[in-house]
TrEMBL record:
Residues 25-146 form the MD-2-related lipid-recognition domain. GO terms for cellular component: extracellular region. This is NPC intracellular cholesterol transporter 2. Keywords: Disulfide bond, Secreted, Signal. Transmembrane segments: none annotated. InterPro entries: Ig_E-set (IPR014756), ML_dom (IPR003172), ML_Npc2-like (IPR033916), NPC2-like (IPR039670). The gene is Npc2. PANTHER family: NIEMANN PICK TYPE C2 PROTEIN NPC2-RELATED (PTHR11306), NPC INTRACELLULAR CHOLESTEROL TRANSPORTER 2 (PTHR11306:SF68). It comes from Tricholaema leucomelas (pied barbet). Residues 1-20 form the signal peptide. The keyword Signal applies.
């Protein structure tokens, strides 16, 4: 079977679009902000396969519903409904792509890294990522399924 150039172009375009799709995520309590998009790169399919010894780029686009002088990220690996803290290199949101002070009604792109250490076990879990404002209220909270692998 020979594909016409148009059919081939459409198939390639569909494949490229599929790779660029934002992640499906669960909002787990965004109160002071609303999430517009979550991207983890590279993660072409879900659950995200996180390879040990690799660092992943996190990009969250959100709109703030409040004013805040600062923000702080907290990341957890959720296993059996227990949140286990997951260290990240830079918890300060103002050093992670957000221009502070945060203004009500403005959209922001939060950028960070998720390092997967070699000593982590090979397991399936839920990554829970929170960003809180200067009053410890949730600017955003999202969850995605992942699988840590060698």
């Amino acid at each position: 079977m020979v594909l016409s150039p148009l059919a081939l172009l459409l198939a390639l375009g569909a494949a490229a679009t599929a790779l660029a799709e934002p992640l499906r995520f669960v909002d787990c309590g965004s109160i002071d902000g609303s999430i517009q998009e979550v991207n983890v790169s590279p993660c072409p399919t879900q659950p995200c396969l996180l390879h040990k010894g690799t660092s992943y780029s996190i990009n969250v686009t959100f709109a703030s519903k409040i004013e805040s002088q600062g923000s702080k990220a907290r990341v957890y690996g959720e296993m059996l409904h227990v949140d286990v803290p997951f260290p990240i290199p830079e918890p300060d949101g103002c050093k992670s792509g957000i221009q502070c002070p945060i203004k009500k009604g403005h959209s922001y792109s939060y950028l960070n890294k998720l390092p997967v250490k070699s000593e982590y076990p090979s397991i399936k879990l839920i990554v829970k990522w929170e960003l809180v404002d200067d009053q410890d209220q949730m600017l955003f909270c999202w969850k995605i399924p992942v699988q840590i692998t060698s």
